[in-house]
Amino acid sequence: MQARKSACAGPLDGIRVLDLTSVVLGPLATQSLADLGADVIKIEGPEGDLMRANGVSRNAGMSSIYLALNRNKRSVVLDLKTEAGAAALRQLITGADVFIHNMRVAAIERLGFGYDAVAALNPRIVYCVATGFGQDGPHRDKPAFDDIIQAACGLVSLGAAAGSRPEYVPSLIADKTTGIALANAVLAALLHRERHGEGQAVEVPMLETMASFVMAEHLAGLTFDPAAGPAGYARLLQGGRRPARTADGWICALPYTDRHWKAFFRAVDREDLAEKYNIASRAERNTHIRALYQHFGDITPDRTTAQWMALFEILDIPATPIYTPDELPSHPHLNAVGLFQSTVHPTEGPLREMRPTARFSATPLALRRHAPLLGEHTGEVLLEAGLAPCDIDAIAGTRNN
Protein backbone atom coordinates (compact mmCIF):
# COMPACT_ATOMS: atom_id res chain seq x y z
CA MET A 1 0.00 0.00 0.00
CA GLN A 2 1.41 3.36 -0.97
CA ALA A 3 1.20 6.46 1.20
CA ARG A 4 -1.24 9.06 -0.03
CA LYS A 5 0.54 11.74 -2.04
CA SER A 6 0.32 14.99 -0.10
CA ALA A 7 2.35 18.13 0.27
CA CYS A 8 0.94 18.52 3.79
CA ALA A 9 3.64 17.53 6.24
CA GLY A 10 2.19 18.81 9.50
CA PRO A 11 3.99 20.59 12.35
CA LEU A 12 5.55 17.36 13.69
CA ASP A 13 7.20 16.44 10.39
CA GLY A 14 10.57 14.88 11.20
CA ILE A 15 9.52 13.45 14.58
CA ARG A 16 9.62 9.66 14.76
CA VAL A 17 7.38 7.87 17.26
CA LEU A 18 7.71 4.21 18.23
CA ASP A 19 4.17 3.24 19.15
CA LEU A 20 3.87 0.10 21.25
CA THR A 21 0.31 0.91 22.33
CA SER A 22 -2.82 -1.06 21.57
CA VAL A 23 -6.62 -1.01 21.89
CA VAL A 24 -7.98 2.60 22.15
CA LEU A 25 -6.20 4.92 24.59
CA GLY A 26 -2.71 4.66 23.13
CA PRO A 27 -3.67 4.42 19.45
CA LEU A 28 -5.86 7.52 19.78
CA ALA A 29 -2.90 9.41 21.27
CA THR A 30 -0.44 8.25 18.64
CA GLN A 31 -2.90 8.93 15.84
CA SER A 32 -3.10 12.51 17.13
CA LEU A 33 0.69 12.71 16.77
CA ALA A 34 0.54 11.06 13.35
CA ASP A 35 -2.13 13.49 12.20
CA LEU A 36 0.20 16.31 13.27
CA GLY A 37 2.85 14.95 10.91
CA ALA A 38 4.91 12.58 13.05
CA ASP A 39 6.21 9.36 11.52
CA VAL A 40 4.42 6.93 13.80
CA ILE A 41 5.67 3.35 13.61
CA LYS A 42 3.14 1.01 15.12
CA ILE A 43 5.00 -1.92 16.68
CA GLU A 44 2.71 -4.95 16.87
CA GLY A 45 3.23 -8.49 18.02
CA PRO A 46 2.55 -11.35 15.61
CA GLU A 47 -1.08 -11.47 16.77
CA GLY A 48 -1.62 -7.77 16.06
CA ASP A 49 -3.45 -5.07 17.98
CA LEU A 50 -6.45 -6.60 19.76
CA MET A 51 -8.68 -3.83 18.39
CA ARG A 52 -8.17 -5.13 14.87
CA ALA A 53 -10.97 -7.60 15.73
CA ASN A 54 -13.44 -5.21 17.43
CA GLY A 55 -16.16 -3.39 15.52
CA VAL A 56 -17.45 -3.96 12.00
CA SER A 57 -15.13 -5.68 9.52
CA ARG A 58 -15.03 -6.54 5.84
CA ASN A 59 -11.81 -8.47 6.27
CA ALA A 60 -10.24 -10.02 9.36
CA GLY A 61 -7.82 -7.73 11.17
CA MET A 62 -9.17 -4.49 9.71
CA SER A 63 -12.13 -3.54 11.92
CA SER A 64 -13.94 -0.22 11.87
CA ILE A 65 -12.44 0.82 15.22
CA TYR A 66 -8.93 -0.11 14.15
CA LEU A 67 -9.37 1.87 10.94
CA ALA A 68 -10.60 4.89 12.91
CA LEU A 69 -7.61 4.92 15.28
CA ASN A 70 -4.62 4.04 13.13
CA ARG A 71 -4.51 6.24 10.06
CA ASN A 72 -1.24 7.97 9.12
CA LYS A 73 0.85 5.19 10.73
CA ARG A 74 3.16 2.43 9.53
CA SER A 75 2.90 -1.10 10.93
CA VAL A 76 5.92 -3.21 11.89
CA VAL A 77 5.54 -6.68 13.37
CA LEU A 78 8.18 -7.67 15.93
CA ASP A 79 8.04 -10.54 18.38
CA LEU A 80 9.76 -8.90 21.34
CA LYS A 81 10.04 -12.25 23.11
CA THR A 82 12.64 -13.28 20.54
CA GLU A 83 16.16 -11.91 20.43
CA ALA A 84 15.79 -10.95 16.77
CA GLY A 85 12.64 -8.92 17.45
CA ALA A 86 14.13 -7.27 20.54
CA ALA A 87 17.34 -6.43 18.67
CA ALA A 88 15.36 -4.83 15.86
CA LEU A 89 13.45 -2.65 18.32
CA ARG A 90 16.70 -1.61 20.00
CA GLN A 91 17.97 -0.51 16.58
CA LEU A 92 14.79 1.50 15.97
CA ILE A 93 15.10 3.18 19.37
CA THR A 94 18.44 4.73 18.47
CA GLY A 95 16.79 6.80 15.75
CA ALA A 96 13.48 7.60 17.49
CA ASP A 97 12.25 10.72 19.23
CA VAL A 98 9.39 9.17 21.20
CA PHE A 99 8.80 5.73 22.72
CA ILE A 100 5.23 5.24 23.91
CA HIS A 101 3.41 2.24 25.37
CA ASN A 102 0.46 1.28 27.55
CA MET A 103 1.70 -2.03 28.92
CA ARG A 104 1.96 -2.64 32.62
CA VAL A 105 5.34 -1.40 33.76
CA ALA A 106 6.42 -4.79 35.09
CA ALA A 107 5.59 -6.43 31.75
CA ILE A 108 7.67 -4.07 29.62
CA GLU A 109 10.52 -4.26 32.13
CA ARG A 110 10.54 -8.04 31.64
CA LEU A 111 10.85 -7.49 27.90
CA GLY A 112 13.89 -5.28 28.52
CA PHE A 113 12.33 -1.98 27.43
CA GLY A 114 11.77 -0.06 30.63
CA TYR A 115 12.81 3.58 30.72
CA ASP A 116 16.38 3.03 31.93
CA ALA A 117 17.11 0.48 29.20
CA VAL A 118 15.60 2.64 26.45
CA ALA A 119 17.28 5.84 27.69
CA ALA A 120 20.62 4.03 27.74
CA LEU A 121 20.21 3.51 23.99
CA ASN A 122 18.92 7.01 23.32
CA PRO A 123 19.25 9.58 26.14
CA ARG A 124 17.24 12.20 24.21
CA ILE A 125 14.18 10.02 23.83
CA VAL A 126 10.80 11.01 25.25
CA TYR A 127 9.58 7.84 26.95
CA CYS A 128 5.87 7.98 27.70
CA VAL A 129 3.74 5.35 29.41
CA ALA A 130 -0.02 5.36 29.90
CA THR A 131 -0.86 3.47 33.07
CA GLY A 132 -4.14 2.61 34.72
CA PHE A 133 -3.00 3.95 38.07
CA GLY A 134 0.00 6.09 39.02
CA GLN A 135 3.08 4.01 39.78
CA ASP A 136 3.64 5.61 43.19
CA GLY A 137 0.27 4.41 44.53
CA PRO A 138 -1.01 1.09 45.92
CA HIS A 139 -3.06 0.29 42.78
CA ARG A 140 -0.06 0.60 40.47
CA ASP A 141 -0.17 -3.07 39.37
CA LYS A 142 -3.94 -3.40 38.99
CA PRO A 143 -5.48 -3.91 35.54
CA ALA A 144 -7.51 -1.01 34.20
CA PHE A 145 -10.18 -0.76 31.52
CA ASP A 146 -12.45 2.08 30.51
CA ASP A 147 -15.38 0.77 32.60
CA ILE A 148 -13.22 0.36 35.69
CA ILE A 149 -11.84 3.87 35.44
CA GLN A 150 -15.28 5.39 34.77
CA ALA A 151 -16.48 3.82 38.01
CA ALA A 152 -13.36 4.59 40.04
CA CYS A 153 -13.16 8.29 39.06
CA GLY A 154 -16.69 9.14 40.16
CA LEU A 155 -18.19 9.45 36.69
CA VAL A 156 -20.55 6.48 36.96
CA SER A 157 -21.95 7.69 40.27
CA LEU A 158 -23.09 11.02 38.85
CA GLY A 159 -26.15 9.51 37.21
CA ALA A 160 -27.17 7.95 40.50
CA ALA A 161 -26.70 11.29 42.24
CA ALA A 162 -29.15 12.76 39.73
CA GLY A 163 -31.73 10.13 40.64
CA SER A 164 -31.09 7.24 38.25
CA ARG A 165 -29.17 3.99 38.58
CA PRO A 166 -25.40 4.09 37.98
CA GLU A 167 -24.55 3.66 34.29
CA TYR A 168 -21.42 3.72 32.19
CA VAL A 169 -21.17 6.53 29.66
CA PRO A 170 -21.87 4.81 26.29
CA SER A 171 -18.55 5.96 24.91
CA LEU A 172 -14.96 4.98 25.73
CA ILE A 173 -14.60 8.32 27.47
CA ALA A 174 -11.87 7.32 29.94
CA ASP A 175 -9.70 5.83 27.20
CA LYS A 176 -10.23 8.74 24.82
CA THR A 177 -9.85 11.52 27.38
CA THR A 178 -6.64 9.97 28.70
CA GLY A 179 -5.46 9.49 25.12
CA ILE A 180 -5.75 13.22 24.52
CA ALA A 181 -3.86 13.89 27.76
CA LEU A 182 -1.19 11.41 26.64
CA ALA A 183 -0.67 13.19 23.32
CA ASN A 184 -0.46 16.54 25.11
CA ALA A 185 2.17 15.16 27.50
CA VAL A 186 4.31 13.94 24.60
CA LEU A 187 4.11 17.34 22.93
CA ALA A 188 5.15 19.11 26.14
CA ALA A 189 8.10 16.77 26.64
CA LEU A 190 9.19 17.30 23.03
CA LEU A 191 9.07 21.06 23.55
CA HIS A 192 11.20 20.70 26.69
CA ARG A 193 13.72 18.61 24.76
CA GLU A 194 13.81 21.23 22.01
CA ARG A 195 14.59 23.93 24.56
CA HIS A 196 16.89 22.04 26.92
CA GLY A 197 18.21 19.07 24.94
CA GLU A 198 17.14 16.34 27.34
CA GLY A 199 14.70 13.48 27.09
CA GLN A 200 12.67 12.24 30.03
CA ALA A 201 10.20 9.68 31.31
CA VAL A 202 6.53 10.69 31.30
CA GLU A 203 3.64 8.87 32.96
CA VAL A 204 -0.03 9.56 32.23
CA PRO A 205 -2.25 7.52 34.59
CA MET A 206 -5.90 6.95 33.68
CA LEU A 207 -7.44 7.23 37.16
CA GLU A 208 -5.71 10.46 38.10
CA THR A 209 -6.44 11.98 34.69
CA MET A 210 -10.13 11.11 34.84
CA ALA A 211 -10.56 12.07 38.50
CA SER A 212 -9.17 15.50 37.67
CA PHE A 213 -11.43 15.68 34.60
CA VAL A 214 -14.59 14.83 36.56
CA MET A 215 -13.81 16.94 39.60
CA ALA A 216 -13.09 20.16 37.68
CA GLU A 217 -16.72 21.17 38.23
CA HIS A 218 -17.72 18.58 40.84
CA LEU A 219 -15.13 19.32 43.55
CA ALA A 220 -17.56 22.01 44.73
CA GLY A 221 -17.67 22.28 48.53
CA LEU A 222 -14.66 19.98 48.90
CA THR A 223 -12.58 22.77 47.35
CA PHE A 224 -12.38 24.35 50.77
CA ASP A 225 -10.80 22.98 53.96
CA PRO A 226 -12.80 22.41 56.02
CA ALA A 227 -15.38 21.47 53.40
CA ALA A 228 -18.02 24.10 52.68
CA GLY A 229 -20.39 21.41 51.45
CA PRO A 230 -20.43 18.13 49.53
CA ALA A 231 -18.92 17.44 46.15
CA GLY A 232 -21.09 17.87 43.08
CA TYR A 233 -22.10 20.69 40.77
CA ALA A 234 -25.75 21.25 41.72
CA ARG A 235 -26.69 22.77 38.37
CA LEU A 236 -25.84 19.50 36.64
CA LEU A 237 -27.06 17.13 39.31
CA GLN A 238 -30.24 18.93 40.32
CA GLY A 239 -30.95 21.35 37.49
CA GLY A 240 -33.72 20.93 34.95
CA ARG A 241 -31.76 20.98 31.71
CA ARG A 242 -32.58 17.99 29.55
CA PRO A 243 -33.58 17.29 25.95
CA ALA A 244 -37.09 18.52 25.23
CA ARG A 245 -39.76 16.65 23.29
CA THR A 246 -41.23 18.34 20.22
CA ALA A 247 -44.29 17.46 18.16
CA ASP A 248 -42.19 15.12 15.99
CA GLY A 249 -38.98 14.40 17.88
CA TRP A 250 -36.53 15.91 20.33
CA ILE A 251 -34.52 19.09 20.55
CA CYS A 252 -31.76 20.48 22.71
CA ALA A 253 -32.22 24.19 23.39
CA LEU A 254 -30.66 26.40 26.00
CA PRO A 255 -32.33 29.67 26.94
CA TYR A 256 -29.54 30.97 29.16
CA THR A 257 -29.65 34.72 29.70
CA ASP A 258 -32.54 36.88 30.83
CA ARG A 259 -32.79 38.09 27.23
CA HIS A 260 -33.21 34.51 26.03
CA TRP A 261 -35.93 33.73 28.54
CA LYS A 262 -37.82 36.95 27.90
CA ALA A 263 -37.71 36.39 24.15
CA PHE A 264 -38.85 32.78 24.49
CA PHE A 265 -41.79 33.51 26.81
CA ARG A 266 -42.82 36.46 24.64
CA ALA A 267 -42.76 34.26 21.52
CA VAL A 268 -45.03 31.63 23.13
CA ASP A 269 -47.37 34.17 24.78
CA ARG A 270 -46.29 33.28 28.32
CA GLU A 271 -44.83 36.56 29.50
CA ASP A 272 -46.60 35.91 32.78
CA LEU A 273 -43.92 33.30 33.55
CA ALA A 274 -41.15 35.83 33.00
CA GLU A 275 -42.79 38.05 35.60
CA LYS A 276 -43.60 35.19 37.98
CA TYR A 277 -39.98 34.03 38.21
CA ASN A 278 -38.40 37.51 37.97
CA ILE A 279 -36.04 36.27 35.28
CA ALA A 280 -34.33 39.65 34.99
CA SER A 281 -32.51 38.76 38.21
CA ARG A 282 -29.88 36.08 37.65
CA ALA A 283 -30.08 35.04 41.31
CA GLU A 284 -33.86 34.68 41.14
CA ARG A 285 -33.65 32.88 37.83
CA ASN A 286 -31.13 30.38 39.22
CA THR A 287 -33.37 29.78 42.23
CA HIS A 288 -36.24 28.77 39.95
CA ILE A 289 -34.24 27.19 37.15
CA ARG A 290 -35.82 23.74 37.49
CA ALA A 291 -39.30 25.23 37.26
CA LEU A 292 -38.30 27.31 34.26
CA TYR A 293 -37.01 24.31 32.35
CA GLN A 294 -40.08 22.34 33.37
CA HIS A 295 -42.26 25.01 31.75
CA PHE A 296 -39.97 24.95 28.74
CA GLY A 297 -40.42 21.18 28.40
CA ASP A 298 -44.20 21.51 28.77
CA ILE A 299 -44.36 24.00 25.90
CA THR A 300 -42.04 22.42 23.30
CA PRO A 301 -44.40 19.55 22.27
CA ASP A 302 -46.68 22.21 20.72
CA ARG A 303 -44.42 22.66 17.66
CA THR A 304 -42.23 20.53 15.41
CA THR A 305 -38.47 20.40 15.69
CA ALA A 306 -38.12 22.41 12.46
CA GLN A 307 -40.50 25.07 13.73
CA TRP A 308 -38.59 25.42 16.98
CA MET A 309 -35.26 25.57 15.16
CA ALA A 310 -36.56 28.36 12.94
CA LEU A 311 -37.84 30.32 15.96
CA PHE A 312 -34.66 29.84 18.01
CA GLU A 313 -32.61 31.02 15.03
CA ILE A 314 -34.60 34.26 15.03
CA LEU A 315 -34.33 34.62 18.82
CA ASP A 316 -30.59 33.73 18.83
CA ILE A 317 -31.20 31.00 21.41
CA PRO A 318 -28.64 28.17 21.24
CA ALA A 319 -30.39 25.06 19.90
CA THR A 320 -29.86 21.93 17.85
CA PRO A 321 -31.86 18.92 16.80
CA ILE A 322 -30.65 15.75 18.48
CA TYR A 323 -28.59 13.83 15.96
CA THR A 324 -27.94 10.10 16.05
CA PRO A 325 -24.51 8.77 15.07
CA ASP A 326 -26.07 7.50 11.83
CA GLU A 327 -27.09 11.07 10.98
CA LEU A 328 -23.74 12.77 11.61
CA PRO A 329 -22.31 12.29 8.10
CA SER A 330 -25.24 14.37 6.80
CA HIS A 331 -25.04 17.02 9.55
CA PRO A 332 -25.15 20.31 7.62
CA HIS A 333 -22.13 21.81 9.35
CA LEU A 334 -19.98 18.66 9.39
CA ASN A 335 -20.84 18.07 5.77
CA ALA A 336 -19.90 21.63 4.82
CA VAL A 337 -16.50 21.48 6.53
CA GLY A 338 -15.72 18.04 5.10
CA LEU A 339 -15.16 16.18 8.37
CA PHE A 340 -16.18 12.90 6.76
CA GLN A 341 -14.12 12.11 3.67
CA SER A 342 -14.59 9.39 1.10
CA THR A 343 -11.42 7.36 0.52
CA VAL A 344 -10.51 4.04 -1.05
CA HIS A 345 -8.45 1.61 1.00
CA PRO A 346 -6.41 -0.83 -1.12
CA THR A 347 -7.80 -3.87 0.71
CA GLU A 348 -10.94 -2.60 2.45
CA GLY A 349 -12.36 -0.70 -0.51
CA PRO A 350 -14.40 2.51 -0.24
CA LEU A 351 -14.34 3.99 3.25
CA ARG A 352 -15.76 6.96 5.09
CA GLU A 353 -12.98 8.46 7.22
CA MET A 354 -12.73 11.50 9.46
CA ARG A 355 -10.04 14.01 8.65
CA PRO A 356 -7.84 15.60 11.37
CA THR A 357 -9.92 18.33 12.97
CA ALA A 358 -7.27 20.95 13.84
CA ARG A 359 -6.49 23.61 11.24
CA PHE A 360 -2.92 24.89 10.73
CA SER A 361 -2.33 27.71 8.27
CA ALA A 362 1.37 27.02 7.65
CA THR A 363 1.51 23.24 8.20
CA PRO A 364 -1.91 21.86 7.23
CA LEU A 365 -2.91 18.36 8.23
CA ALA A 366 -4.10 15.60 5.93
CA LEU A 367 -5.01 11.94 5.64
CA ARG A 368 -1.55 10.89 4.43
CA ARG A 369 -1.71 7.14 4.97
CA HIS A 370 -4.42 4.54 5.23
CA ALA A 371 -4.55 2.45 8.39
CA PRO A 372 -1.94 -0.25 7.70
CA LEU A 373 -2.27 -3.96 7.32
CA LEU A 374 -0.56 -5.99 10.02
CA GLY A 375 3.19 -5.74 9.46
CA GLU A 376 2.76 -3.97 6.14
CA HIS A 377 5.81 -1.75 6.59
CA THR A 378 8.12 -4.14 8.47
CA GLY A 379 10.70 -4.47 5.70
CA GLU A 380 10.53 -0.79 4.73
CA VAL A 381 11.05 0.52 8.25
CA LEU A 382 13.77 -1.96 9.21
CA LEU A 383 15.71 -1.18 6.04
CA GLU A 384 15.52 2.52 6.92
CA ALA A 385 16.91 1.64 10.37
CA GLY A 386 19.94 0.00 8.79
CA LEU A 387 19.13 -3.68 9.29
CA ALA A 388 20.53 -6.05 6.70
CA PRO A 389 18.06 -7.76 4.35
CA CYS A 390 19.05 -11.16 5.71
CA ASP A 391 18.24 -10.03 9.26
CA ILE A 392 14.90 -8.67 8.10
CA ASP A 393 14.14 -11.97 6.39
CA ALA A 394 14.99 -13.79 9.61
CA ILE A 395 12.60 -11.58 11.57
CA ALA A 396 9.86 -12.16 9.00
CA GLY A 397 10.49 -15.90 9.15
CA THR A 398 10.21 -15.88 12.94
CA ARG A 399 6.98 -13.90 12.66
CA ASN A 400 5.39 -16.32 10.22
CA ASN A 401 6.28 -19.53 12.03
How would you state the average pLDDT, rounded?
A: 94
- The level 1 CATH classification of the largest domain is Alpha Beta
What Rg, in angstroms, do the CA atoms define? 26 Å
Q: Tell me the β content.
A: 5-15%
Q: What's the CATH superfamily of the largest domain, by name?
A: Crotonobetainyl-coa:carnitine coa-transferase, domain 1
Element-by-element helix/strand order = EHEHEHEHHEHHHEHHEEHHHHHEHEEHH
Query: Roughly how much helix do the residues carry, as a percent range?
Result: 40-55%
**Which class of secondary structure composition applies to the elements?**
alpha/beta
How many β-strand runs?
A: 11
Largest sheet: 6 strands, parallel
Number of helices: 18
How many distinct domains? 2
CATH level-two architecture of the largest domain:
3-Layer(aba) Sandwich
CATH fold-type name of the largest domain:
Rossmann fold
End-to-end CA span = 24 Å
Shape: elongated
Stretches where pLDDT falls below 50 for ≥5 residues?
1-6
* Order of adjacent strands in the largest pleated sheet: 3-2-1-4-5-6
Describe the structure.
This protein has 401 residues and is α/β, with parallel strands linked by helices. The protein has two domains: 16-214 and 334-400, Rossmann fold, CATH 3.40.50; 244-321, formyl-coa transferase, domain 3 (2-Layer Sandwich). It contains 18 helices and eleven strands. It has helices spanning 25-35, 64-69, 83-94, 105-111, 115-121, 146-152, 155-161, 173-196, 206-218, 234-238, 258-267, 271-276, 282-287, 289-299, 305-315, 332-337, 378-384, 389-400; strands spanning 16-19, 39-44, 73-77, 98-101, 126-131, 200-205, 244-245, 250-253, 319-321, 340-345, 349-354. The strands form three sheets. A six-stranded parallel β-sheet has the order 3-2-1-4-5-6, sandwiched between helices. A three-stranded antiparallel β-sheet has the order 7-8-9, covered by helices on one side. Helix 1 packs across helix 8 (173-196), helix 8 crosses helix 9 and helix 17 (378-384) runs antiparallel to helix 18 (389-400). It is elongated, with a radius of gyration of 26 Å.
